[in-house]
Specification:
The chain has two helices and five strands; from the N terminus they run ββββααβ. The protein has a single domain (2-79), classed as Beta Barrel (OB fold (Dihydrolipoamide Acetyltransferase, E2P)). A hairpin with a 5-residue loop joins strand 2 and strand 3. The protein is mostly beta strands. Helices cover 10% and strands 38% of the residues.
Length: 80
């Protein structure tokens, strides 16, 4: 997991900065959470999500609660 500081938020567009000062522009939508991440806070992403070779350069992600439509219960047999 890579730790990113949220530098700027414009609607769903997040500018994230890693520990080496590299910036990433990623579109993120959060569903079914009480409070959205704020500027200056930290967010973690798996290296695999940001690997252009793995995800073909996808820079839009949607996250939600595990029991909701945008979440996955990884203990569910369907996802094993």
């Amino acid at each position: 997991m890579i730790k990113f500081k949220i530098k700027k938020i414009n609607n769903y567009n997040y500018i994230l900065e890693d520990k080496d000062g590299r910036e990433y522009s990623i579109s993120i939508q959060f569903y079914d959470i009480k409070q959205l991440p704020q500027k200056g806070e930290y967010i973690y992403f798996s290296e695999k999500l940001l690997d252009k070779a793995t995800n073909e350069g996808v820079t839009h992600f949607s996250f939600g609660g595990l029991s909701e439509i945008y979440g996955k219960d990884i203990n569910n047999r369907k996802y094993k």
